[in-house]
Specification:
Number of helices of chain A: 10
Structural class of chain A: alpha/beta
Number of strands of chain B: 13
Structural class of chain B: alpha/beta
CATH superfamily of the largest domain in chain B: Thiamin diphosphate (ThDP)-binding fold, Pyr/PP domains
Distance between the termini of chain A: 50 Å
Radius of gyration of chain B: 21 Å
Distance between the termini of chain B: 42 Å
Radius of gyration of chain A: 19 Å
Number of domains of chain A: 1
Shape of chain A: globular
Number of strands of chain A: 10
Helix content of chain A: 25-40%
Order of helices and strands of chain A: HHEEHEHHEEEHHEHEHHEE
Number of domains of chain B: 2
Oligomer: heterodimer
Low-confidence stretches of chain B: none
CATH architecture of chain A: 3-Layer(aba) Sandwich
Number of helices of chain B: 15
CATH class of the largest domain in chain B: Alpha Beta
CATH topology of the largest domain in chain B: Rossmann fold
CATH architecture of the largest domain in chain B: 3-Layer(aba) Sandwich
Mean pLDDT of chain B: 97
Strand content of chain B: 15-25%
Largest sheet of chain A: 8 strands, mixed
Largest interface: A-B, 33 and 38 residues
Order of helices and strands of chain B: HEHHEHEHHEHEHEHHEHEEHEEHEHEH
Low-confidence stretches of chain A: none
Mean pLDDT of chain A: 94
Shape of chain B: globular
């Protein structure tokens, strides 16, 4: 296939509009087909390549579906214990202040077991980037209730739906950290359509550029799907995400350049 | 100066890159001393008060994983919180220095000195098959000396090293001879000395991944075999101990840290009564001086293991001596320090008369 393609006359420099970044390691992804992780991995690696900072970047992978993120990202990385990526990043950025440091965490990692670390790095104003993938479920362990599981949403540990009287409410971590003085850029994005992918990439670029000026935490939530955990097809899960996740977790910037963005009224479905 | 201040000053002088800790009695003077000295304005050493001991140990994982010389300090309950992180660091083979200024337990226990964390430190308090090097200071001087030695060993073997002190040695004041300051390593030195560290991938080398995870059981076994080989080498090469008045001794106190200091007085008391007693003091609790105790066991009539706990190191002493002679334990705990004369009485009652 590759050989045939190489022989085609069409393959000329002026015709190539897109190629896989060299910073993504060419091996089969461990993510389910249809999952948003792969797209975010690509956006991150493209950003680092475009900024020319591969030799200056240190990433931290979490425990969760993306525990093996370092198998796909061709940069130096550390695998953190569950929830502790922000603690690692704190020490690394303070001792290597000219490095670009980012954490990559899921909702269980960042918003449940690692809540203390998340709140405190955002309050201290550490100068790194946090990528928060929120799919409302524990994917790797088989679809248990997450801190961001929606009310009435089903999971293997709330098989009849999340009863908020018993199980409490989903946590809007991104709105929460936006209130803290140490965050500089807080935004909620998605990667399920071409336009949302383009927006998410711009947000990632902005977050990394902020590190050049030591502005504090840049925090990017990506609301994503988990078609396996939600027991849907990828297309169904993206539609469900638009209909249910986005009303509760509305997309858009929450804090830009250290200032809160005026929130538009969001339509919520009861 | 105080033991806690000595270890803090020694860390600055050893060229430490970062201290991360959380206040807990009886060791809060360590961070207080560092914050007062402001090494971030002189050597460039980072000092950060973390939100918890859990965060502190994971800051060490981050710092150690990038080749930096990092340390934390705490006391027993805080060290318990760090055990998960210690296991990860042992698995990922990362260097770091921990200081445990032990207080009485279990639980919140007391703020008074104890040696109740021997098992946790020496046997591995976290999950999985791992060891950390454990140094037991018996003086303020050794608090300072072991900070430097601890960093050296941590980097030599790429593993966490712990100074297992106690509330008395942390708080007591003695004269200390401090070593000359060693400059912090430059970025270039860190890069050449720690080629394994995650520091940013240049074009000409593979990316570095710091992790303790290997989902392939064969790979995980290989990691374990490598760790075990390292531990065997440490057991061969890094055993440290002190023997006092053992040449003509018929009976031996075996004690570490503060208990050993007390036993030094007990030796004089016993010898004035005509009992020939000596002291064997393990300085490295891991690696434990197994062969030296075995040799000593052939020459003496009995051993009394004196600890400020309910009997922990005695298990290792009995194993080393292979139960070839009478070995008993004498301990006070919950924050009580035994007096020299009660230790002599215990020797008379439990070993000589028993």
């Amino acid at each position: 296939m590759e050989e045939q393609f190489a022989k085609l006359d069409i393959r000329k420099d002026e015709n190539i509009v897109y190629k896989r970044t060299d910073l993504l390691i060419d091996r089969p992804l461990s993510y389910c087909p249809g999952c948003g992780h792969g797209v975010v991995h690509r956006l991150l690696m493209e950003t680092i390549e475009e900024m020319g900072i591969q030799d200056k970047t240190i990433g931290i992978s979490p425990v969760g579906c993306s525990v093996l993120a370092y198998d796909f990202m061709n940069i130096d990385m550390l695998g953190a214990a569950h929830g502790r990526a922000p603690a690692l990043a704190t020490a690394i950025k303070r001792m290597w202040p000219d490095r670009f440091v980012f954490t990559y965490q899921g909702d269980g990692d960042l918003a449940a077991i690692g809540t203390a670390e998340t709140i405190h790095v955002c309050n201290r104003g550490e100068h790194f980037t946090m990528i928060f993938i929120n799919n409302g479920i524990y994917g790797m362990t088989g679809g248990q209730m997450a801190p961001t599981t929606l009310p009435n949403m089903r999971s293997s540990t709330c098989p009849y739906g999340r009863d908020t009287n018993i199980m409490g409410f989903p946590l809007k971590m991104t709105e929460l950290v936006a209130q803290l003085p140490g965050t500089y850029y807080v935004t909620r994005q998605a990667v399920h359509t071409p336009s949302s992918v383009r927006k998410a990439k711009k947000a990632i670029r902005k977050a990394f550029e902020n590190q050049k000026n030591n502005t504090g935490i840049s925090f990017i939530e990506v609301v994503s799907n988990c078609n396996s955990g939600w027991k849907m097809t990828p297309v169904q899960s993206n539609k469900w995400m638009e209909e249910h996740m986005f009303p509760f977790f509305p997309l858009g910037d929450i804090k830009v350049d250290g200032k809160m963005v005026e929130q538009k009224e969001t339509v919520t479905k009861e | 100066m105080k033991g806690n201040e000595a270890v803090a000053e020694a860390a600055i002088r050893a060229g430490c890159d970062g201290y991360f800790g959380y206040p807990i009695t009886p060791q809060s003077e360590i961070m207080e001393y560092l914050m007062t000295m402001k090494p971030y304005e002189t050597t460039g050493m980072v000092v950060l008060q973390a939100e918890s001991e859990v965060a502190s140990i994971n800051m060490l994982y981050g710092g150690g994983g990038t080749g930096k010389m990092v340390m934390t300090s705490s006391s027993s309950p805080g060290i318990s919180l760090m055990q998960e992180g210690l296991s990860y660091m042992a698995g990922a083979e990362l260097p770091a220095l921990l200081v445990n200024v032990v207080r009485g337990g279990p639980g919140l226990g007391t703020i008074q000195p104890s040696q109740g964390d021997y098992f946790q430190a020496v046997k591995g308090g976290g999950h999985g098959d791992y060891k950390i090097i454990v140094l037991a200071p018996a003086s303020v001087q050794e608090m300072a000396d072991f900070a430097k030695l601890g960093f050296e060993l941590a980097f030599k073997y790429r593993m966490p090293t712990m100074i297992l002190s106690d509330g008395a040695i942390g708080q007591m004041m003695e004269k200390v001879e401090l070593f000359d300051p060693i400059p912090r390593r430059t970025e270039a030195e860190v890069l050449t000395q720690c080629p394994w560290a995650a520091t940013g991938k240049p074009k000409n080398r593979d990316h570095i991944v710091i992790t303790s995870l290997d989902l392939d059981p064969a790979g995980q076994e290989r990691l374990n075999l490598r760790l075990q080989a390292k531990y065997r080498q440490i057991e061969k090469e890094e055993v440290r101990y002190e023997m006092i008045s053992c040449e003509d001794a018929e009976y031996i106190f075996v004690a570490f840290g503060l208990s050993a200091r007390i036993c030094q007085k007990s030796i004089n008391l016993a010898r004035s009564k005509g009992i020939k007693v000596g002291l064997f003091r393990p300085i490295t609790l891991y690696p434990f001086p197994v062969n030296q105790i075995a040799e000593l066991a052939k020459k003496v009539k009995g051993m009394l293991v004196v600890e400020m706990n309910a009997g922990q190191m005695i298990e290792d002493v009995r194993l080393a001596a292979d139960c070839s002679l009478k070995i008993e334990h004498y301990g006070r705990f919950g924050g009580i320090i035994p007096a020299p004369d009660e230790v002599v009485k215990a020797m008379e009652k439990q070993i000589i008369g028993g």
